Amino acid sequence: xxxxxxxxxxxxxxxxxxxxxxxxxxxxxxxxxxxxxxxxxxxxxxxxxxxxxxxxxxxxxxxxxxxxxxxxxxxxxxxxxxxxxxxxxxxxxxxxxxxxxxxxxxxxxxxxxxxxxxxxxxxxxxxxxxxxxxxxxxxxxxxxxxxxxxxxxxxxxxxxxxxxxxxxxxxxxxxxxxxxxxxxxxxxxxxxxxxxxxxxxxxxxxxxxxxxxxxxxxxxxxxxxxxxxxxxxxxxxxxxxxxxxxxxxxxxxxxxxxxxxxxxxxxxxxxxxxxxxxxxxxxxxxxxxxxxxxxxxxxxxxxxxxxxxxxxxxxxxxxxxxxxxxxxxxxxxxxxxxxxxxxxxxxxxxxxxxxxxxxx
Length: 360
Fold this sequence. Notes:
alpha+beta, Creatine Amidinohydrolase, 20 strands, 4-stranded mixed beta sheet
C-alpha cells in the first residue's frame, strides 16, 4: 500500500514526518486505517497505523486482530493490554516532531492520548489530504461487485413485497438476500419507507404494515470486502395514481439529466443543479431537500458530495451516487439512486436494478 501512503503525503500542505490513523471503538473506526494498510477484514478497535513519508507503514495491533493484520504484510507491533498498547504508541511516536492526524475521523479522546504520548510534537490536521475519491482498479472491481449484489438481491426480494407485510420484514428479506448473494453485510441500515414514511429521506424500517396504494422507498446497499454500494428504488403496491406517476417520472428525468453531466471536468455543483432545476420547474418545486449524491467506497459517504456547497470537480475513476428525490409530507416520496463510475468516455452505471416505477 506504499502508493496510497505516498499519495496521502503528496496532498499534505503542511510537512509532517508521521501520519497516524488511530481507531477507537466501533463505530469510530477510521476507514483510512483500512485504506492505508490495504486490509479488507477485521474490526481493529484500539489499533493504529503509523505511516511514513517514504510510503512505508507499521501497524499497532491488538492480539485480537493480529491474524487479520498479518494479511497486510506490514510490520506489526502486537499488544495484549492497554498498558502494552500505550508503550507501543510511545515507542512509535518517539522522535517525531510534526505528526498528522485525521481530525475528521479520530475521536477527541484518542487524539488527546496521542498528544500525551508525544508532548513535544506539533499535531497537524491531514484530513483534507486523505483523498479516497479517485479509486484504484481493485477498488472499482469491489464497488462493481457490491452494486451487482445489491441489484440482484432486490430482484430476489420484490416478489415478497405485498400488502400486510411490515417494512421491517421486507428489510430483513433484503439483507438476507444480499448476504446470500455474497455480501459480507449491508452497507448501512436498510430503509423501507412505505406510505407517508416514504416522505422521510432517512427513515429506516419499522412495524408499519404495507398497504395497497403505498409508495415504498427502498434504500439499501451491500458491503463486499468493506466496499459499499448504495441503491434506491421506489415501488408501489397496486396501480399508481396520476400524481404518484408524475412524481416518479419527474425524479426519473432529473436523475437522467444529472447522469449526462457526470463526466471528468464537470463541477459537482453543476451536476446537482441539473437535477434540482428540472424538479423545481415542476409542481414539486422545493421538494428535493437533500444533495444529489455522494462519493462511495470504503464508507457509504466517502468524502465528496454532489451538492450546492461542493467545490469538487469530477475526475476519472471517482464513484458517486446519483439520487434525486421528491418528498411530500403526508403523501409520500420517490427516490431513485444509482452508483456511477466516472470514466473518460462518460458515466458508467454500476447498479442495474430496473429504474421505472415498479408495480407490485
